[in-house]
Each structure stands twice: as C-alpha cells, then as structure tokens.
C-alpha cells in the first residue's frame, strides 16, 4: 500500500476541529477527569512546532527522505519538559503539528503509544483535538497489526485504488467517527479515491 501522506495530512488538519468545539470520543477519552489548569501560551514553542511540521510536509511533497527521527527526538524532549503540547500551551495549529510529528514516528512505536495516552488525557480535559486522537489511535493499532477503529488509515495502491487497513466493527464506524468530529467514512474514501487517481496521473511518465 503506497501512502499519500502529505495530502492526507492536509485533509486531516482541515478536518480535525478544536476539542472545545467537538464532543470527546467515547470510551476512556470521554471519561470525566479533574480539569487541569490551562497552560500559559508559549509562542516560541508554538512557532517551533509549526516550523517542524512545515519541514515535515515539504519533505513529503518533494518525495525526499524525511528527518522523522530528528523531529521525533525533539518532540520527545518537548514532551519531557512540558507534557503534551496542548491547545492552551501552543494553540490548535501547534497541537496539530505535535500530533502530526507523533503520527509519523512509526520508527518509535513506544513513543507513539506514549503520545496516544497523553493526547487521550488532554482530550478528556478539552485541551486537544479528538480527531487527532482518532487518527493516532488507528495508527498505533495498525502498527501493531490490529484492526483500526475509525477508518483513518487509508492508502493508495500502485494502480490508484483505495486500500483501507482492516477495520473493526465497520457497521458502526460512522457513529465513532461522528463522536470525534470526523465525517462519514464514505465521504472520506471518496476524497481519497480522487487523491489516489491524481497521484497516479502525477506519477505517470
């Protein structure tokens, strides 16, 4: 399965609403917790994370070998110092950037699982995107060879067909997607079909 990562990230960031505007996901992420005090906004950290994502996307659009390991190590340092970069700490786009870097840290599944737990806790406090939580939940599951929950992990075959990683309980997937602010799976796959077709056209000699 040939992933179309750069375009997917653009779609994801456009579709993941702020956690304050969406219902939290069902299960552990929706559990009632004691609200932590909002962190003071850190402009310098926000700017660094956004720049890291811009670098990530530029590399993927150009088809270059990315520096995911270096970005992952820097994000780990940030997490060790500040905890998860929440919306209150780095803004919605900064939190999106941190999530995208964790999403691309497939070489470090242990850190991906750590990030997943931290995002889950932040979503429960209303300080991270439920959509980001859904995407990383699926990413971690697929990385472990398990079925995904929300149907976010989709790629393109060499001939431009959409390929969806195995999905648990497909009949109720749209309910789960709605809980985290994602649209119906059918709409997502239709958009992916257009992307896959364009990808084939672009790569054709």
Structure, described:
A hairpin with a 5-residue loop joins strand 1 and strand 2. The protein has eight helices and two strands, in the order H-H-H-H-H-H-E-E-H-H. It is globular. Helix 1 (5-15) runs antiparallel to helix 2 (43-62), helix 4 runs parallel beside helix 6 and helix 5 packs antiparallel against helix 6 (130-143). The protein has one domain (5-28, 40-203). With 205 residues, the chain is mainly alpha-helical. Strands 1-2 form a two-stranded antiparallel ribbon. The protein has helices at 5-15, 43-62, 68-82, 87-103, 109-124, 130-143, 173-179, 185-203, and strands at residues 154-156, 162-164.
User: Which word captures the global form?
Assistant: globular
Helix proportion: 55-70%
Spans where pLDDT lies below 50 across 5 or more residues: 1-34
Give the rounded overall mean pLDDT: 85
Q: How far is the N terminus from the C terminus?
A: 20 Å
Largest β-sheet summary? 2 strands, antiparallel
- Estimated share of beta-strand residues: under 5%
| Number of E strands | 2
How large is the count of helical segments?
Answer: 8
Oligomer state equals single chain
Q: What order do the strands of the largest sheet run in, or round the barrel if closed?
A: 1-2
- The radius of gyration is 17 Å
Spell out the helices and strands N to C.
HHHHHHEEHH
Annotation keywords:
single chain; 205 residues; mainly alpha; two-stranded antiparallel ribbon; 8 helices; disordered N terminus
SSE topology:
Blueprint: H1 5-15, H2 43-62, H3 68-82, H4 87-103, H5 109-124, H6 130-143, E1 154-156, E2 162-164, H7 173-179, H8 185-203
Antiparallel strand pairs: 1-2
Helix pairs in contact: 1-2, 2-4, 4-6, 5-6
């Amino acid at each position: 399965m040939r992933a179309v990562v750069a375009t997917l990230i653009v779609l994801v960031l456009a579709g993941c609403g702020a956690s304050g505007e969406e219902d939290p996901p069902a299960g552990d992420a929706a559990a009632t917790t004691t609200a932590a005090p909002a962190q003071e906004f850190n402009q310098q950290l926000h700017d660094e994370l956004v720049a890291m994502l811009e670098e990530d996307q530029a590399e993927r659009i150009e088809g270059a070998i990315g520096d995911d390991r270096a970005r992952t190590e820097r994000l780990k340092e940030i997490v060790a110092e500040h905890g998860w970069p929440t919306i209150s700490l780095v803004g919605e786009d900064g939190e999106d950037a941190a999530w995208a870097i964790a999403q691309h840290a497939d070489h470090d599944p242990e850190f991906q699982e750590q990030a997943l737990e931290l995002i889950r806790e932040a979503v429960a406090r209303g300080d991270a995107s439920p959509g980001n939580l859904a995407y990383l939940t699926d990413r971690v599951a697929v990385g472990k060879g398990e079925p995904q929950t929300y149907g976010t992990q989709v790629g393109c075959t060499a001939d431009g067909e959409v390929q969806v990683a195995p999905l648990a309980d497909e009949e109720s997937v749209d309910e789960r997607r709605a809980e985290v602010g994602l649209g119906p799976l059918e709409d997502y796959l239709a958009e992916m079909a257009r992307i896959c077709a364009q990808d084939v056209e672009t790569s054709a000699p």
